[in-house]
Amino acid sequence: MANDEHLLLIDGELVPATGNKTYDNINPATEEVIGSAPDASAADMQAAILAARKAFDAGDWANDPGLRRESLLRFQQILRSQVEVLRPRLIAESGMPLPIALGIGVDPGIEYLSHYLDVYDKLEHEKALALKTVHGAPVRRTVRREPVGVVAAITPWNVPFELNLRKAGAALAVGCTVVVKPAPETPWSATFLAAAAAEAGIPAGVFNVVTTSDNSVAEILTSHVAVDQVAFTGSTATGRKIMANGAATVKRISLELGGKSAAIVLDDADLQAAVAGTAGGVCALSGQGCTHLTRLLVPHRLMAEATEIAKATMESMPYGDPLDANHIMGPLISARQRERVLGYMELGKQEAKLVTGGGAAAQFERGYFVQPTVFTDVPNSARIAQEEIFGPVLSIIGYHDDEDAIRIANDSIYGLSGAVFSPDEQRATSVANRLRTGTVSINGASWFDVDSPFGGYKQSGLGREFGDEGLEDFMEIKTVALPG
User: Residue 231: its pLDDT value, please?
Assistant: First the structure.
């Protein structure tokens, strides 16, 4: 399965793109071409969508939980057997550091498949309402949950393998058919899944993988009448376009979008632990995480001390080769992303006070590396405090009291995550409950787990992943009435 031939998966067949067209896959740590991926055409995408439609409407997948369990567990076992081969190849295309690949990016996603099947088995698929007289006649009513249909899973490049399995696994487990369209920068995170699915014998059309470098080809998924739901993770700007594209066919849309999450350090917190932990976390995956705590809110009287702690943390951060187990920070994904982040660093020098970093990492001859960066005395109205940078950039913002901290934290178009630090759990929980975000950590506790619903408020998204809610997001509700 883990070979050097990367192919599309359309209607159960591993095939090249039309005309054998390919594009280069580039290692962001070395800037070297490590291979190629199929560059699908509009015709390829149409074929994948229609295959998924046919498999849902005429196949057994939607109505046979036993078939789904048998197929997905076989798929999972193949992935497990190949993980040691897959991991370094996926690190090579994404620049994801090894500790993150082990902790989140590669290994755990494979285990989602059996978890989703178990959650599906426990869901209430059908319930009877009480016998009732409605409009003068007795009726018996049943409420059913059914798979939504054809799902387009459109995924980003930051945690690509895990996100492909997170979305596709949940949709497949409930009986949907799926077309996965990965980010152009990380195609192998999907083509490896295509090869494993073909080997596992997942029925034709149930699971399709289409890689392309052409955004217009990808957009077909967001407007095609045969697609019932689009599940997308990525920027808020792209999420808005997907909603607009899906409006004509009134698609169901689930979105996990951007964030500008705030960590509130209350005045009784362990300042060293809270600030160092937050600053270090911003460096994880080179800041390319939507839930990263990129705004650090501290009392005005503690700003100077907090700034020194953040500075020391960032300057001691080891980073470089993503295969080095000591590194949680590697390169940014591409030259384009590096230029974007460097642009924000230059903007920050005009809007606030640069403490450390602020440029490209000159010690590396090759690779899209930038320095861990801290700005202090940042007005919350500054662009570096309001816009998602997706790089290792921390903005330190002062506040007067708890009310002021809550106001600043909520003063954002985003609402994906947040954190509160205080030894007084009642006080910390009171603050956390007033944050307009989908997830909140108190004193470093992790909310990220397949059992816990994950998603955002405001312009951070629609719907939820993980938990029971993550499966229910791929299901429709039907009421059936019979005479009483």
Answer: 98
Q: Which is it for the CA torsion 411, 415, 421, 426, positive or negative?
A: positive
Q: For a pLDDT cut of 70, what percent of the chain falls above it?
A: 99
Instruction: Determine whether 144 is exposed, middle or buried from the number of CB atoms within 10 Å of its CB (0-12, 13-18, 19+).
Output: middle
Alpha-carbon gap, residue 392 to 272, rounded angstroms: 19
Is residue 256 helix, strand or coil? strand
Which of 290, 388, 465, 472 is catalytic? The answer is 290
Rounded distance between C-alpha atoms, residue 266 and residue 429, angstroms: 12
Backbone φ and ψ for 363, nearest 5 degrees, come out as -75, -10
What does residue 390 show for φ and ψ, rounded to 5 degrees? 60, 50
* Residue showing tokens 């106001």: 407
Residue of 256, 388, 465, 472 marked active site: 256
Nearest CA among 314, 402, 387, 290 for reference residue 347? 387
In the numeric block, the tokens 């974007």 are attached to 340
> Considering the entire predicted model, what is its pTM?
0.96
Which positions ≥6 away from 70 have C-beta within 8 Å? none
Query: What is the C-alpha to C-alpha distance for residues 279 and 283, in angstroms, rounded to an integer?
Result: 7
Domains of the chain as residue ranges with CATH: 8-257+461-483 (3.40.605.10), 262-449 (3.40.309.10)
Q: How confident is the model at residue 5 (pLDDT cuts 50, 70, 90)?
A: confident
Which two three-digit tokens encode residue 420? 């509160």
Residues facing residue 482 across a β-bridge: 140
Residue with tokens 């090869």: 195
User: Is 256 an annotated catalytic residue?
Assistant: yes
The amino acid sitting at 312 is: A
pLDDT in tens, 265-286: 999 999 999 999 999 999 999 9
How is residue 423 annotated by DSSP? S
φ, ψ for residue 235 (rounded to 5)?
-75, 155
